[in-house]
């Protein structure tokens, strides 16, 4: 099971431009999970995707969005949590959160486990989970805290297909429910602040 003491929460691309009628229901679950995670004193990483001119998304998919604020902004529900002392913002221009900067950040945090939530199950969540697996981290994808925002295909089917791929390629046991994470967080004690020594 998840080693909370060696885990970071990876909140993938929960940005205004990725929230629509299909992905919006996951936002309260993600917010609740991030709130409980922050209370447990564990590190969290919030990624932000940025598109750019002549990107593969433009050239090959014909997708033109998320070039800047307000689309690239993290949703209001998470902005306070993303500014907490144990929170880190990671900007990226690719699907994965496991960029060189992301890997350096994770190594610096000395974590082994990544609890992954966010948008979209079939894109950045999937790629981040696969890359975490290949880079030696243990990924845990939170089924009810991820969602697809697909509009060209049925979002629910794409979401389930991505979870099936994650189960197959990363491990069926690596897809968990938010309630399982909550239970583990409830038993994780926050380290007490170090008392100053008297001289």
> In which range does the helix fraction lie?
25-40%
CATH architectural name: 3-Layer(aba) Sandwich
Q: Mean pLDDT, nearest integer? A: 94
Number of contiguous helices: 7
Strand sequence of the main sheet, in spatial order? 3-2-1-4-5-6
CATH topology tier name: Rossmann fold
Which structural category fits the helices and strands?
A: alpha/beta
Uncertain spans: 192-199
CATH superfamily: Isochorismatase-like
Write structural notes for this entry.
The chain is globular, with a radius of gyration of 17 Å. Strands 3-2-1-4-5-6 form a six-stranded parallel β-sheet, sandwiched between helices. Helix 5 (121-134) links the parallel strand 4 and strand 5 (138-147). It has a single domain, classed as 3-Layer(aba) Sandwich (Rossmann fold), CATH 3.40.50.850. The protein contains seven helices and six strands; from the N terminus they run E-H-E-H-H-E-H-E-H-E-H-E-H. It has helices spanning 26-39, 56-61, 76-79, 100-109, 121-134, 155-169, 178-187, and strands at 7-12, 44-49, 87-92, 113-119, 138-147, 175-176. 36% of the residues are buried. 37% of the residues lie in helices and 19% in strands. The chain is of the alpha/beta class and 199 residues long. Residues 192-199 have low confidence and may be disordered.
Q: What topology emerges from the helices and strands here?
A:
Elements: E1 7-12, H1 26-39, E2 44-49, H2 56-61, H3 76-79, E3 87-92, H4 100-109, E4 113-119, H5 121-134, E5 138-147, H6 155-169, E6 175-176, H7 178-187
Helix pairs in contact: 1-7, 5-6
InterPro entries: Isochorismatase-like_dom (IPR000868), Isochorismatase-like_hydrls (IPR050272), Isochorismatase-like_sf (IPR036380)
Protein name: Isochorismatase family cysteine hydrolase
Organism: Nocardia aurea
């Amino acid at each position: 099971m998840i080693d909370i003491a060696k885990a970071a929460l990876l909140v993938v691309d929960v940005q205004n431009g990725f929230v629509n009628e299909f992905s919006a229901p996951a936002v309260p679950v993600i917010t609740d999970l991030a709130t409980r995670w922050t209370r447990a004193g564990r590190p969290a990483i919030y990624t932000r995707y940025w598109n750019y001119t002549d990107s593969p998304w433009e050239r090959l998919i014909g997708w033109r969005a998320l070039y800047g604020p307000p689309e690239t902004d993290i949703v209001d529900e998470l902005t306070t949590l993303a500014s907490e002392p144990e929170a880190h913002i990671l900007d990226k221009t690719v699907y994965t959160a496991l960029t060189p900067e992301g890997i350096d950040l994770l190594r610096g945090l000395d974590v082994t486990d990544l609890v992954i939530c966010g948008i979209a199950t079939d894109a950045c969540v999937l790629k981040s989970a696969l890359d975490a697996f290949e880079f030696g981290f243990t990924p845990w994808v939170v089924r009810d805290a991820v969602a697809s925002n697909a509009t060209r295909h049925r979002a629910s089917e794409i979401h389930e297909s991505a979870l099936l791929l994650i189960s197959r390629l990363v491990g069926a046991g690596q897809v968990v429910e938010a309630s399982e994470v909550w239970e583990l967080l409830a038993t994780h004690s926050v380290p007490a602040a170090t008392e100053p020594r008297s001289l």
